[in-house]
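During the no-cost extension, the postdoctoral fellow (Dr. R.K.) reprocessed legacy sequence entries with the updated structure-token encoder. One reprocessed record is reproduced below for audit purposes.
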Amino acid sequence: MPWNSNVFRRRKLLILVLVAVGAAWFGWERFARERRYDGLIRAVAIRNGLPPELVKAVVWRESRFDAEARGSHGEFGLMQVTETAAQEWADARGDRTFRHEHTLDPATNLHAGCFYLARLSRRYPGTDRPFAFALADYNAGRGNVLRWAKGAAATNSAAFLDAMTFPRTREYVEAILIRQRGYAAGFR
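Re-encoded structure tokens follow.
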């Protein structure tokens, strides 16, 4: 069969069109997924005294907006809430029927996660950026934060990040704070 350059060009064009359509769909789907919980995030964050863009950045990092996400250490939902953190929220509400599986519900997960993150942020009032310390606490635990927060690192977030001995926790905090700035415009 002789080579037909017109057929080749049409196939090449068809492939390019399909790739472009696929990329556009993927971009739109990602955009829609990231905005799906904006109203709920805003309401729950404000109720807990947190910036909505910070909470959205935590959700992005923890679950990529997947309400059904389950972590390797028993964390559930959008904010990957641990059983202990969820139970603290339930106890504060006087909810005796609460089970950790309830945090697979997006609203419940955001309420429990924001309650816990707000509580952590109140632990670091004398710091230049309490949320940097709270995020490290959320990720690596209070004991590690206390170990890293010595000298200048006790109040200065840049020194605190430098003092971290867990590179993944440092990257976690930095990624959320960067993403928070990017989300800020969407919540104004």
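The mean pLDDT is 91. The chain has two domains: 1-35, 36-187. The remaining legacy entries will be reprocessed before the final report is submitted.
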